[in-house]
Request: fold
Amino acid sequence: MILQLFEGEKIRFAAFDADKDAEALSKWTHDPEYMRLLSPDPARPLAPFHIKKRFEEMEKEAGRDFYYFVIRAREDDRALGFTHLRWIEWNHGNAHFDMGIGSASDRGKGYGSEALQMLFRYAFEELNLYRLTGHTMEYNTGAQKFLLKHGFQLEVRRREALQREGRYWDGLTYGILADEWANANR
Reply:
């Protein structure tokens, strides 16, 4: 079976389209729960103009050490979320990744799992990376379960590294090696 690199059964990876995507991505930044789960940074709602500006800045970074994809639904081509590889250390074969499915109504439908499998194929088979690293916070139990389900192992627990909601939370780092992913997908 031939697998398309940037197309799956339900989704496809695409470049950011400022005219098409800025409004949707802006709406996601206005969802406090999404922003809470996505990043330990303070939530900051962004207007479509600011999203476009951010992407202009990211495009300057994109290329050798940074790859950004919008996750689109194949059925209607709407933006569902994003994923990216960053901080790529080519000499060691390491990269960090982030992913988010924007609208609460799109979560739990398998889009993230399919996107992660596509990202694994791209990272391990096309870019020839050796390991992927993902970060989350102790309070994001959904991300922890997602990472463990897909073969990641908890590698680092930074005790009480984040202050939010009147208490301290651990910062968690998960990793997976290319051969671990390949063995699980045979």
